[in-house]
Design brief:
Cys/Met-Metab_PyrdxlP-dep_enz; globular; four-stranded antiparallel sheet; Aspartate Aminotransferase, domain 1; pyridine nucleotide biosynthesis; 365 residues; PyrdxlP-dep_Trfase; 2 domains; pyridoxal phosphate; seven-stranded mixed sheet
């Protein structure tokens, strides 16, 4: 970051778009990220935010199914996904409908031949429940629908094989397990076979076939390039690329094995050390159905998390009562897990959570 700020921008200025490869950085980082999610290098682009990318790919998918009017998603999906779908439908008018299924619904029963797009999150942000990507994609395709996967809570933490599963589109963030930092650029995936038949609605200049020809009308670039919008955020891309490079140094299967071990150890220790305080585990017990997080429910969840943060155990709270513990296998240790549970035990035993300062709601939970 210092080198880019002081040398590439501080000295070389705009020449760095060519001299230091800024112009192709979004593609370069996307190609690296493709290795983490089971995609081809030219199928992934780093751009914008997860929310914006979702809007783009769902809009593109709807155009590929012009005679279908229904979008299916989960009621428990991450709120921004549902908000963006609602906003897209408002733009389209009354022609389209969003149908939400509960997590225990039979997905196959929800996907009829009137469904255009199915929007699913691979790993649930609230519970850590992980869907069978290949199976769900197959069910959608059997009904003639396209699938968009949200990988925000799985990329970099659990194995993702988009091509093997036959996925059509995917989005995700660089913030969480990919270590890109707060507000890191997001990414999107578009299957090779669909790229040149797609039109995305945010036709910005970096998605133009010749952005520096400064033509007065829009001509989309070929392939994944057309899914860019405006100027890429270079400093954020630099930070994200370092995070992805570090992730690629590790064997992904070994990362998954460690993730499972960390989560299983946490579950066992909570049961052993904290059984007196009525925590309810809402994450699946089976590692094959769980991402790299364990979520507990407790009526005093918010105050407990604040007390834990004060003790150096940084989890997060999800309304109305979820304590979420994420395990980044690249750098979290088994000792960290043991210490976290001991601090949880101390917070409960000493009723630290009952202090007034831990009950004050902050803007970010």
């Amino acid at each position: 970051m210092a080198e880019v700020v002081e040398q590439e921008w501080g000295v070389d200025l705009i020449s760095s778009w060519n001299k230091h490869g800024w112009f192709t950085m979004a593609n370069r980082v996307g190609a690296k990220m493709a290795k983490l999610i089971g995609a081809k290098a030219h199928e992934v682009m780093v751009a914008d935010s997860t929310s914006v990318n979702l809007f783009k790919v769902v809009s593109a998918a709807l155009q590929l199914r012009p005679h279908r009017r229904i979008i299916v998603s989960e009621r428990a999906n991450f709120p921004t996904d549902l908000y963006m779908l609602e906003g897209l439908i408002r733009q389209l008018g009354s022609r389209h409908e969003l149908r939400l299924m509960d997590h225990d619904d039979d997905i196959s029963a929800s996907i009829t031949d009137a469904v255009a797009v199915v929007v699913l999150t691979h790993v649930s942000y609230r519970t850590g429940r992980m869907l069978d990507m290949a199976h769900c994609t197959q069910l959608a395709h059997q009904a003639g629908a396209l699938v968009v996967w949200d990988l925000a809570h799985s990329a970099g933490a659990v194995p993702v094989e988009l091509n093997e599963a036959g996925a059509d589109f995917a989005v995700g963030c660089g913030y969480k397990y990919l270590n890109g930092g707060p507000g890191a650029p997001a990414f999107l995936f578009v299957a090779e076979a669909l790229q040149d038949s797609c039109e995305q609605p945010l036709s910005g200049w970096f998605g133009h076939a010749q952005p520096f020809a400064f033509e007065h009308t829009y001509t989309p670039a070929s392939g994944i390039q057309r899914f860019q919008c405006g100027t890429p955020p270079i400093l954020s891309l630099v930070a994200l690329e370092v995070g992805v490079d570090l992730m690629l140094e590790a064997c992904q299967q070994e990362l998954r094995q460690k993730s499972v071990g960390l989560c299983d150890t946490f579950v066992a220790l909570v049961q052993q050390e904290c059984s007196s305080w009525a925590f309810q585990q809402v994450s699946p017990n089976s590692a094959s159905k769980r991402g790299s997080q364990v979520c507990l429910a407790h009526p005093e969840g918010y105050a407990i998390i604040q007390a834990l943060i004060a003790q150096g155990v940084v989890g997060d709270f999800r309304a109305p009562d979820i304590l979420r513990f994420g395990f980044a296998p690249l750098y979290i240790s088994y000792v960290d897990v043991w210490r976290a549970v001991q601090q949880l035990k101390a917070v409960m035993r000493e009723r630290l959570w009952d202090r007034e300062e831990y009950r004050q709601q902050s803007a970010v939970t």
